[in-house]
From TrEMBL:
<keyword id="KW-0479">Metal-binding</keyword>
<dbReference type="Pfam" id="PF08240">
    <property type="entry name" value="ADH_N"/>
</dbReference>
<dbReference type="InterPro" id="IPR011032">
    <property type="entry name" value="GroES-like_sf"/>
</dbReference>
<keyword id="KW-0560">Oxidoreductase</keyword>
<dbReference type="Pfam" id="PF00107">
    <property type="entry name" value="ADH_zinc_N"/>
</dbReference>
<comment type="similarity">
    <text>Belongs to the zinc-containing alcohol dehydrogenase family.</text>
</comment>
<feature type="domain" description="Enoyl reductase (ER)">
    <location>
        <begin position="12"/>
        <end position="358"/>
    </location>
</feature>
<keyword id="KW-0862">Zinc</keyword>
<dbReference type="InterPro" id="IPR020843">
    <property type="entry name" value="ER"/>
</dbReference>
<dbReference type="InterPro" id="IPR013149">
    <property type="entry name" value="ADH-like_C"/>
</dbReference>
<dbReference type="InterPro" id="IPR013154">
    <property type="entry name" value="ADH-like_N"/>
</dbReference>
<dbReference type="InterPro" id="IPR036291">
    <property type="entry name" value="NAD(P)-bd_dom_sf"/>
</dbReference>
<protein>
    <submittedName>
        <fullName>NAD(P)-dependent alcohol dehydrogenase</fullName>
    </submittedName>
</protein>
<dbReference type="InterPro" id="IPR002328">
    <property type="entry name" value="ADH_Zn_CS"/>
</dbReference>
Amino acid sequence: MRITAAVLESAGGPFTLQQIDLADPGPDEVLVRVHSVGICATDLEFANFFPTPAVLGHEGSGVVEQVGERVTGVSPGDHVAMSFTSCGDCPLCRGGNPAYCRQFDAVNFSGRRPDGSSALSRDGQQVNGHFLGQSSFASHVVAPARAVVPISKEIDLGVVGPFGCGFGTGAGAVLNVLRPEVGSSLVVFGAGAVGVAAILAARAAGCAVVAAVDVNTGKLDTARLLGATHGVNSTEGDPRELLTAIAPHGFDVAIDTTGREDVLRLAVESLGPLGRCGVVGIGPSEQMSFEWRSVLNGRSITGIIGGSSLPQVFLPKLLDLHAAGNFPVDRLITRFPFTQINEAVAALRSGEVGKAVLTL
Ligand SMILES: [Zn+2]
Ligand SMILES: [Zn+2]
């Protein structure tokens, strides 16, 4: 079928809207008509080196139109969120940890299905897709059934997309991995969509002190409005001193969403004894470094992919939390028509919006 997709022609962009071809779903795949799709920092990062021409996008929501012959559990007409995919066969997938699938990179980041084919093509030439199980910067997606999560038809599809990555990544780091105790202290570095989702989850988990650190005053204001007890602008003084004033004995939990070497070091050093640092950001730095003595007092560092979630279990729970008013992410979202994808990317890059969601 002919679809409209935002095609990345060369590294760095821009995206151009084009008519391209989408093959029918295979036996284990589903065809989804996209309702809306969030733009995540990972799209912008991968746009710099993903093999082109390509279709990115991995925070899609929509309606199932067709399912392959072996697909069970989802039917045409179902509303779905889309998330990352996994092989389903390795010990980590079988153990309920698909975010750490042994084939994770091959099935999410190769641009192709495991057999080397792509569902996307243009003038008979294959176009790279299958990005994080989706490539949802498009009117339609052929996704593996494993990447699709059925949701209630009562939920606004316009907010659902980012639950599949950004919101789920931040909230999952807190609720699935770090699990702070009631009354504990937590600090989040980077108050973008992932960071604010972590802050909201920390409040839902009963943390008494939830500090947000950023360089953008507007983002810190939003974080405080949504539940951060403290906002720290790291350009307005020595961030170490500012954090010590909030948690004199160090934080119980720290989360880095920036992927920046200096910030990662600060995150580890902001912890108290036995404190735990979750690393969730993909950022500009290749390395992290710190004095080895700084982890002797029981501090630990954990990398976390996709909120360590089993999407079919975690996303409905997070959507329930949202429906009950305890995960109010709506205020983070700014909607753009799909035709304004490049404007939305620019607004995201400048920090003018927290989470851009394209509506088809
Ligand atoms: Zn696997
Ligand atoms: Zn993402």
